[in-house]
Amino acid sequence: MFSQPTNPESSEEKQSAIASDSHELELLLADSWNRPLRKRLLDHLRDTLSPEKLPPLHLTSRPVDVGMLAGDILSLPWYRTVFTNLGDVISPETLPPLQLESRPVDVGELIGDQMSHMWWSSLLRSLADVAAPERLPALQLTSAPMDDPSLTAGAMQLPRWSSVISTPKVFYPDKPKAALVQAPRSAAPPPKPDPAEVEFVHVLEADLKRDLRRSIFRQRLWISLAVIEVLALIGTSIWWK
């Protein structure tokens, strides 16, 4: 047997191939999830007291100012939001003009703005529309009017459907008369039940009623005990000294 010559490049390629084969998809949780509770608490305290200093973030895109995040707004105390709302009402923020990239379309006043007006403003607007209505431009129609005289006269006359049909009339034969139906004979009276069976049914009915009464009594008893226990717990939690 001849020994193969050892080549450093071939050995490195073999090691890299073995390493790539050893990396498999790991579907389990990381090892940090299995750490004890005290170690995780210490890590959280260390991150809170002395957080890790990261290098400045290098952005490759143009940043956009979206204001304060929703999480930061919710973390603020209640008096901060009150003061912020008062500041926005007294001295609102002056924003730069909006840069539009599309052609604006005049849609009139928005519904939200109309609802925010007082009631007398809408009343005055309605009176102004009645007294001096707005003059709109002439309507541009793309279809030609119909020259039917029946339509221009004010009433449309339609022919009867029977005069429009060109097929000959068809007369269907009369329906056959129903034959005389004989009166049904009186049914035979049902046989009398056996007295033993009647007595057995009565006994079963009595047993069933007794079981139902007992179950209802037990249900009311347990519900009453549960209500008394809940009331006792509430009373002791409130008036206990």
Can you lay out the helices and strands and say which pair or pack?
Blueprint: H1 8-22, H2 37-49, H3 70-75, H4 78-90, H5 111-116, H6 119-131, H7 149-152, H8 161-164, H9 195-239
User: What would the principal axes of the Cα set say about the shape?
Assistant: flat
Q: Give the structural class.
A: mainly alpha
Strand content: under 5%
Helix content: 40-55%
Unreliable residue runs? 1-10
**Mind summarizing the main beta sheet?**
none
Please report the total strand number as a whole number: 0
Distance between the termini: 96 Å
User: Helix tally?
Assistant: 9
What's the overall average pLDDT, rounded?
A: 77
> What is the alpha-carbon Rg in Å?
46 Å
How would you spell out the order of helices and strands?
Answer: HHHHHHHHH
Describe the structure.
By secondary structure, the chain is an all-alpha fold. It has nine helices and no strands. The protein has helices at residues 8-22, 37-49, 70-75, 78-90, 111-116, 119-131, 149-152, 161-164, 195-239. The chain is flat.
Please give a quick description of this structure.
This protein is an all-alpha fold and 241 residues long. Helix content is 49%, strand content 0%.
